[in-house]
Give the backbone structure.
Amino acid sequence: MQYLSNGKRNLGIDWLNNELFRFGASSLANDVLMQLVKEQTGVYQSLDYFSKD
């Protein structure tokens, strides 16, 4: 929510759409995978363990 609020404040409401104001979630997906593996194994895997795609 803070990310969107900052975008609105700095760029204006017209920029808050899916064509102009986007952020990637691939690193978030890898973090979720790391957390799931940690819950199952008890240890974190290296970031290299997961795909960067």
